[in-house]
């Protein structure tokens, strides 16, 4: 649960300090006044990176050499402090005054689930967006999956380098064999975990989607470029042996989890091609609530971030989402309080970003 946030020279803010309510927080401001910048900073607390850019320089207010963000949050009832100094060439991250180098060293992590408008691209866009989304959930649920994915990507990068560097085909094949042994083992482990996860995730999504839509049926299926109903490791061995000459000609690795996809359909029609905007929004909302439930089953302290999506939902879906959140912490960005005021009756905090006012409301408002 997020307790406080401090930003210095971050994006549009010279200085900003905010405290947060343990339940509902409403960040109220007009467009282009920094609402999404606040959500982005909170997301960075969870993932140690932005969801909007890979360029650190964009996170630094113009005319400054660096930016700074600090957060206090509860994880398993323990108060933690994270400090992030952002420079154009990288980030320096401290947790409770101890330097951490990567996500693996990030203990007592702040867990957040984000829903923002561009998430619809997960349904409409290229397979890489769907892989990235599912991987982001799996790496939080399974440390072994995270380690296997990092190792797989490293071996894959080295294999692709070898495909581009070596001119002699026989020498190259000998080198590829050593990489293939590692890719087959790691790839089979990743696919097995993805397959199991997708089956569980699909079951939860289906139930949520049925309640939201009333009639439409959502289905999510893992699609691999090998037969995953058989022995996965053996299937990869056969596929790599059969495709080695093609990989040499293409100078890239055509098979593996890095090429797989997730087929998402509504009423047996491919969502990417045939779903309406409303159907896509309902499907993505179902997936986000399912993600929230799965993350929360492993960690009770989860914060939901809703950036500029609440206004796109009708009253039924807004209420369903709020009911699903229950007593969790949620942070909304809104332009108008009318979008939510009839739907919340418990305690909440309104943060007026443009005037830096904090207004408590609800049964115990003060």
Structural account:
β10 (261-266) and β11 form a beta hairpin. It is globular and about 70 Å long. The protein has a 6-stranded antiparallel β-sheet, with helices on one face. It has a 6-stranded mixed β-sheet with strand order 8-12-13-3-14-15, sandwiched between helices. The chain has 2 domains: 1-110 and 301-365, P-loop containing nucleotide triphosphate hydrolases (Rossmann fold, 3-Layer(aba) Sandwich); 120-297, RecF/RecN/SMC, N-terminal domain (Glutathione S-transferase Yfyf (Class Pi), Chain A, domain 2), CATH 1.20.1050. With 366 residues, the protein is of the alpha/beta class. α4 packs antiparallel against α5 (169-213), α5 crosses α6 (232-250) and α8 packs parallel to α9 (315-325). The two termini are 21 Å apart. The protein contains 9 helices and 15 strands.
Domain module count? 2
End-to-end C-alpha gap: 21 Å
What is the name of the CATH class of the largest domain? Mainly Alpha
CATH superfamily grouping of the largest domain: RecF/RecN/SMC, N-terminal domain
Helix-strand string: EEEHEEEEEHHHHEHEEHHEHEEE
Strand arrangement in the largest pleated sheet: 2-1-4-5-6-7
Count every helix, treating DSSP H or I runs of 4 or more residues as helices. Answer: 9
Please give the number of β-strands.
Answer: 15
Radius of gyration from the CA trace? 23 Å
| Biggest sheet overview | 6 strands, antiparallel
Beta-strand percent range: 15-25%
Derived structural class: alpha/beta
Shape: globular
Low-pLDDT parts are none
**Helix content percent band:** 40-55%
CATH architecture of the largest domain: Up-down Bundle
């Amino acid at each position: 649960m997020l307790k406080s946030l401090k930003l210095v020279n971050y994006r549009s803010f010279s200085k900003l300090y905010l405290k947060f309510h343990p339940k509902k927080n409403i960040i109220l401001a007009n467009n282009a006044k920094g609402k999404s910048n606040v959500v982005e900073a909170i997301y960075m607390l969870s993932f140690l990176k932005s969801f909007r850019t890979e360029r650190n320089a964009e996170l630094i207010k113009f005319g400054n050499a660096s930016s700074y963000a600090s957060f206090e949050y509860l994880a398993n009832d323990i108060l933690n402090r994270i400090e992030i100094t952002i420079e154009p060439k990288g980030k320096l991250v401290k947790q409770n005054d101890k330097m951490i180098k990567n996500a693996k060293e990030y203990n007592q992590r702040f867990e957040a689930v984000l829903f923002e408008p561009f998430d619809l691209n997960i349904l409409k866009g290229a397979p890489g967006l769907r892989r990235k989304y599912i991987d982001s959930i799996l790496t939080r649920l399974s440390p072994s999956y995270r380690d296997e994915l990092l190792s797989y990507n490293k071996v894959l990068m080295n294999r692709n380098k070898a495909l581009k560097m070596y001119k002699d085909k026989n020498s190259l094949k000998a080198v590829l064999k050593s990489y293939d042994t590692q890719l087959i083992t790691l790839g089979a482990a990743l696919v097995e975990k993805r397959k199991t996860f997708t089956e569980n995730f699909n079951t939860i999504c289906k139930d949520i989607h049925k309640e939201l839509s009333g009639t439409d049926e959502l289905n999510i299926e893992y699609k691999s470029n090998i037969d995953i109903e058989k022995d996965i490791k053996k299937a990869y061995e056969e596929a790599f042996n059969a495709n080695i000459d093609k990989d040499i000609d293409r100078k890239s690795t055509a098979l593996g989890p890095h090429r797989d996809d997730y087929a998402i359909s509504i009423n047996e029609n491919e969502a990417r091609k045939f779903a309406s905007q409303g159907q896509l929004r309902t499907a993505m909302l179902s997936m986000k609530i399912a993600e929230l439930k799965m993350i929360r089953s492993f960690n009770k302290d989860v914060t939901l971030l809703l950036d500029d999506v609440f206004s796109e939902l009708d009253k039924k879906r807004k209420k369903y989402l709020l009911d699903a959140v229950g007593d969790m912490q949620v942070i909304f960005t809104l332009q108008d309080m009318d979008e939510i005021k009839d739907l919340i009756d418990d305690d909440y905090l309104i943060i007026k970003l443009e005037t830096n006012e904090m207004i408590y409301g609800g049964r115990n408002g003060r």
